[in-house]
Amino acid sequence: MVQEKKEYINCLKSSGYQSERCRGFSKLYLECRIQRNLMAKQDLSEFGFGKEYGMGAS
């Protein structure tokens, strides 16, 4: 999870905190947190992720 978090934060910093540019990293980070039971399991579509943000989106 540390790697996913670092990648997401680095993306935010390098993009001037324009989160839309980091959605792929954001999705991976949320998936990681869900897998490790650090947050409740819920469909990522509830966070605005659709099929266009697959695992290869990073």
UniProtKB/TrEMBL annotation:
It comes from the Eukaryota. Residues 3-33 form the CHCH domain. The keyword Repressor does not apply. The keyword Membrane does not apply. SUPFAM superfamilies: Cysteine alpha-hairpin motif (SSF47072). Coiled coil: none annotated. Keywords: Disulfide bond. Pfam families: CHCH (PF06747). Transmembrane segments: none annotated. PANTHER family: CYTOCHROME C OXIDASE 19-1. This is CHCH domain-containing protein. It comes from Nelumbo nucifera. The lineage of its organism: Eukaryota, Viridiplantae, Streptophyta, Embryophyta, Tracheophyta.
